[in-house]
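Chapter review: from sequence to fold.
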Amino acid sequence: MLSNVVNFFTEAFANLQTLLFENVVLPIAFNGGAGNLLDVAFEGTGWLLVGLIQIAIMVCLIAPLERWRPIEQQPDAAAVRVDVIYTLVQRLGLFKLFMFFTFENAIETGFGLLRVEGFPTLNIDAIWPGVTDQAAVSFVLYLIVFDLVHYLIHRGQHQFNRWWALHSLHHSQRHMTLWTDNRNHLLDDVITAMLLSIVAKLIGVGPGQFVALVAVSQLWENLQHANFKCSFGWLGDRLLISPRFHRLHHSIGIGHESAGRKTLGGHNFGVLFPWWDMLFKTADFSDRYDPTGVRDQVEEGRDYGRGYWAQQKLGLVRLFERRLNA
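The token string follows.
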């Protein structure tokens, strides 16, 4: 039954991707003299379609939740508009297009050479043989593995000063909304995308599975960042990450600092499941909704930038500072 549902949505998505490619992307590619890049264009069409579906869900389903039970009033509309720009750059394929022609192409070439030399691929789904709904089980297994990788990446962003210099841009939003998830420094996004791509190649994730894994994770992160007063109860919060659980990660002096000290650390690094935070003792299930931001931004008035390019520039300034503070 579950396999039939997965197959239905997979086939429907493939049909939509083909329709969009043949009627919109293909004519643009030929008119722009890019007929030799049709494979890349077709894959890019898939990411574009995913982004359009995500934005539709965000606007039609998550945005009404923010209006229904907001945590705080949001007077800084300009800051939210900048987050919308980040989201459009990411979800409509502009960032992905850049990655296609740079780092991902290098990763693909590198793994091709390794396979010629006999380097094996670890197919995670092969550890669960003989399952009827193999596609669904495979997806869940990869989802759990990717969530662990996301957790470790996120711990790294909060553990190392240079990485935190970039990632702190994400935490500088004082008025979180469903659009805040993609508020990241471009270099931070490049590092994260490269690490995820390498892991996907190592464990045998197919291109279609990779798109689905990223799409599910991103949508759930949109909900987590929403200005929506919501927890899933004692048990639910320990099964899936709720907006309350993740907001604590953005709380001033809690989410990005060690307990009682102004040093890097923090709580609630998970993306989908709180299990890794529970396992590694970084979970905080406190029933509270704190103001969000970075301590030096609030207490010392540090400027993290108002506009998109100002934020990107200041991120590089922080990265190359001689002395970095938490």
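Two observations follow directly from the output. The first helix runs from residue 2 to 31. The chain has a mean pLDDT of 87.
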